[in-house]
Amino acid sequence: MQDKNTVPIGFKINYLKPVTPESYDKAQGIKQSLDELIDELNGALGINLLLKKSKNLIINRLKNLVKFINNKDANGFMQEYTHMRLFTKQLISVKNNDVEMFAHFKREILKQSHQDNWYGIRAELGIAFNCLENFKGTTRKRESPDFVLNESTIPVFIESTMAHTNSQKVEVLYKIGAAINKKNKKIYANNNTALCIDITNIFNRFFNDTNKQESELVDWINNYLNETKIKYGAIIIMVHMYLKAERRCQATYSTYKLQHCSAELSEVLDELYPKIGKNKYADPVFSNYS
User: Which residue in 40, 131, 279, 289 is deepest, having the highest Cβ count within 10 Å?
Assistant: First the structure.
């Protein structure tokens, strides 16, 4: 448990001023959950996050949790908290499986502070976690593309990106195409490389409209890929999905192999991101790998 004297400015939890035994128990339960999360992150990173003076991605996310507590926003707290628990689980797994790769993520987590960097690092960490846990071959973190697999034999590559918007506009799916189009111009865009695109933000914005159906999202992606000349061998659509009923977050994916996908990349993806269902791409669209 965190000592109260370690809590820095900005972490005052007003919600811990209950007026009934029931609210007291609830408040203490929330504080215990937050303390346990911080303890796990401290253990994984080998530092006391709350004693660091500089801003970093983890401190920013923890401040978000405190804001939800103080605003008595239980749903917002659980969404952020479960995302953080999944992130911590993946970080610990990477640490246990590849010290060098973990060092990269630790460095980026403590160096970066802008919120947009959080989504990119979270997406890359999810790929690293999946590769190290579920792929029998070798995986190395690099730059452009972000990962190389089976480097000593016939290497294949995975590049990570994200589709994100701060706009309140109803139409957001075009952002997926915009992100793919931007990466499609890179010199490493070829049939031996998969592009993983995290659309969590777009997914949540799209389904803010409760009238939207998953089939609309699937149809949009299918139509875009059919009408666009994609240089990559495959597109992996990724979503960090909050399951309210189960009070947890799970990392999910949908695999889209293109016609010109190399045999080597196809074989690797069958191991990492297997297609499910009988439709052209995937059914159900999002499969769990968390």
Answer: 131
Query: What's the pTM?
Result: 0.86
Report CA 246 to chain centroid distance, whole Å: 18
In angstroms, the Cα distances linking 183 to 52, 159, 177, 240 are 36, 9, 10, 21
138 token code pair: 């070798």
pLDDT in tens, 49-91: 877 666 788 988 988 898 888 888 888 889 999 999 999 999 9
Tens digit of pLDDT for each residue in 108-119? 999 888 878 899
C-alpha closest to that of 231 among 275, 207, 264, 261: 261
Spell out where the chain has E strands. 139-141, 147-149, 156-162, 193-198, 234-243, 248-257, 287-288
Dihedral Cα 34, 36, 40, 41, nearest 10 deg? 20
Buried b (16+ CB within 10 A) or exposed e, 110-124: bebeeeebbbbbbbb
Distance CA 143, CA 236 (A): 18
Helix axes 21-45, 74-97, angle to 10 degrees: 20
User: For the chain, which ranges sit under pLDDT 50?
Assistant: 1-11, 13, 15-16, 18-19, 277-290
